[in-house]
Design goal:
77 residues; mainly alpha; 78% helix
């Protein structure tokens, strides 16, 4: 399989995973914002949830960016 085609397929799969999972932590975070959970353990969980949400977004963006940059590079010949 051609390298460019493989990268395009990979990019499409990463984008699909990103679209499907970008907001996977949104519902629990909204519940925390609505004070559905209270107390010290809830605040700790909220901080971990917020960190996990930010990390998920960062890693999805990083994966997309890495493949997009690789697609833009000339192939070694």
């Amino acid at each position: 399989m051609d390298e460019q085609l493989r990268l395009q397929l990979l990019l499409g799969r990463i984008q699909q995973l990103s679209n499907e999972n970008w907001h996977v932590l949104t519902r629990p975070r909204h519940a925390m914002d609505d004070h559905a959970w209270v107390g010290p353990s809830a605040r700790s969980f909220d901080r971990r949830l917020e960190h996990g949400d930010a990390e998920l977004h960062a890693q999805l963006r990083k994966a997309l960016d890495l493949v997009q940059r690789q697609i833009g590079r000339p192939l070694a010949g």
